Amino acid sequence: MIKNWQLISLIVLVYVIGLIVLFPAKVAIGFAPIPDNVTIGRVDGTIWRGSIERVESQGLSFHDVGWRLKAADLVRLRATADIDIPRHPNNILQGQAQVQASANAIKVRDASFGADLENILVLSPVSSPIPLQGGVSMRISDFELGSPVCNALVGQVIAVQVQAQFGARWENLGDYETNLGCSEGRIAIAMPEDNLLGLSVNGNVAPTGIDLRIGIAPRDGAPQGIRDLLQWLGQADSQGRRYFNFRL
């Protein structure tokens, strides 16, 4: 009788473990509190490793998004998943990130994304006065979700081999680095002026508004088309820089 109970217990244990390991991701997603403005396509795989055919929200969509959940972190009462956004014709960017969720915080670490500049500009609330192209990479070493945006943020955005179109010609504008931080819950932006356009940007961004102080003073070698556009910004100061505020 004891051996029978041991065998039954073993079978039940194996069944429970198998149920946990192979638990379908689409069933888990069905219980998740998904916001009304988020649409999710077909879900494949298990809760530990799977993919979503499409995630769409407010006109922005990502395809074939994959995840890999780390079981060891569940012992610490937190969920950690490696997220992958692959190259896809309809993905505005691609890359990887680690997302960590606990009872009191949602964090993103070691995130690295790449995109084409012209695709990223589509998300801008203001259109560029001239066509631009180039590559963009974003690295986020630490981010913690807060109100309205963040409790912590350490990151960098780099635009490389940027070009602007003047007439039928594309002119080189060089590379640009922007540091990201968190200030009073808003994303703090700081771009130093050590670039071909002498472009500097300082301020903060949040869903509630944008407040940026922008300065520019093209250096030798900058396209004449840029210098011509600057005439619309008024007179330069004693150091040859022009400043303007951008608020939304």
Automatic annotation (TrEMBL):
InterPro entries: T2SS_protein-GspN (IPR022792). It is found in: Cell inner membrane. Keywords: Cell inner membrane, Cell membrane, Membrane, Protein transport, Transmembrane, Transmembrane helix, Transport. One of its GO terms (cellular component) is plasma membrane. The chain crosses the membrane at residues 7-25. GO terms for biological process: protein secretion by the type II secretion system. It comes from the Bacteria. Its main location: membrane. Belongs to the GSP N family. This is Type II secretion system protein N. It comes from Aliidiomarina shirensis. The lineage of its organism: Bacteria, Pseudomonadati, Pseudomonadota, Gammaproteobacteria, Alteromonadales.
